[in-house]
Amino acid sequence: MSTPVIELSGVAKRFGGVVAVRHVDLALFPGEVHALLGENGAGKSTLVNMLAGIHRPDAGAIIVDGAEVTIPNPRTSRALGISVVHQHPVTFPDLTVTENIMLAGPAPRRRTRLLDWGTARRHAREALARLDVHLDISAEVKHLSAADQQLLEIAKALDTGTRLLVLDEPTAALSTREVDRLMEIIARLKADGVSILFVGHRLNEVFALADRVSVSRDGATVVTGPAHEFTPESAVGHMVGRSVETAFPKAEVELGPARLEVRGLSRRGAYTDVSFTVRRGEILGLAGLVGAGRTEIARGLFGLEPADSGEIVLDGAAVSIGSPQQAMRHGVAYVPEDRHSEGVVLEHSIGFNLPLALLERRPRLGLLSPQADRALAGDYIDRLRIRTSGPDQLLGALSGGNQQKVVIAKWLATDPSVLILDDPTKGIDVGAKAEVHQLISGMAERGLTIILISNELEELLAVSDRVITFYRGAQGPEFDRRPFDAEQVLAAMTGQVSDVHV
């Protein structure tokens, strides 16, 4: 085998108390597609960001052509021949294809320092021609399909000096036909000698493309080998790696009658014909890859992005939920995935944040009571064991786990009957996760109905009483017998099975 384009040796990265990448070894060769597999949270995106110059490793080495290098910024990454296409396209929708490609590098200018639009348009045509992609270079990007925007991202990333192309979940928003088109382009780049690191979850695509496969688990490389030595089943086995029951013991709860029923819920472009029932004291897990529609369903149930059709039934009565205010009146609460932008105000105190969800219940002309707010905050600080100096402490000064407890407390203060938790342990350390798991289990014991979304499959299977899988917006197999088979659930999430109900 030829000399690697890029090698990573013992690379590690920590964010505060959270270890994102523990120990990764990876060698990427020219003219090869190397697939990187792993569950959500396995450290794949952090690894991509280190190659892109967004994050710097805390330990280990990045080696280019046999020499150790430092990649302090994206410009250095590009200079080393590394081009990265991130999971979410970074385009300017109101600008044209030409303008988007021009902004990816130094803009061509005339001697007068004015922009050279003729050269910019020629560069745009050349970038698209290299991929055999035919786009109107004068079209505004917002009018392109998701697939064409993804191809535009690749065209922006590539230049004549690209030696390594990193594709992070490039097919998440693409249809089957669009994926086939992308695969043809990857094959063409491979034939040109470009090294390709393909980060993906969809195993059928991985094994159709990859020459070699590496699996990452808990931030470390656990196995690397030729693609033909793996099967989808063996890859899933390496990704899961261990029994979930030993890591997160779960209290058994006697379930009550049906509290929430969803019938044929659909929203164009997000999810279709979703139906399920959740009982009192039950924790229902929604499993799926990023883009599978889980968060959109949660936001629909809370009225943030109402469904186009279908019915929501609470305690046997059909209800209309077209806004968060209506959801709250019906006893539905939602802890969002991004607590910083949607859950709390970091610049204010716990006593300010915790009563925010109760404002609508106060008289329109009623006065705020700082004393009552501090008393409410103090009560939940004690109940949820929030580590803080008191209600007056700024939320931004708390650890991630304690911030998350405040978000949960804010919604528990509304006395909900249904609580939707979207990735509630995202970005918090292991110890804090265990405390949040205990909190969730305790809420279920008290009869609260919980819908749980988590990008960590291990966590989801450990905490849930029942799991429903989703794949590309469609409801898939349901698993209702614990202990769950992690390999079967992950296979359903990746579209490998369609007829499992256990």
From TrEMBL:
Picking any one GO molecular function of the record gives:
ATP binding
User: Has keyword Chloroplast?
Assistant: no
Please name the InterPro entries in this protein's record: AAA+_ATPase, ABC_carbohydrate_import_ATPase, ABC_transporter-like_ATP-bd, ABC_transporter-like_CS, P-loop_NTPase
Which SUPFAM superfamilies does this one have? P-loop containing nucleoside triphosphate hydrolases
The record places domain ABC transporter at 6-243, 255-497
Q: Which keywords are on file for this protein?
A: ATP-binding, Cell membrane, Membrane, Nucleotide-binding, Repeat, Sugar transport, Translocase, Transport
Q: Where is the signal peptide?
A: none
Looking at the Swiss-Prot or TrEMBL record, what is one Pfam family this protein matches?
Answer: ABC_tran
**Which superkingdom is the protein from?**
Bacteria
Q: What is this protein called?
A: Monosaccharide ABC transporter ATP-binding protein, CUT2 family
Please report the organism this UniProt entry assigns to the protein: Pseudonocardia ammonioxydans
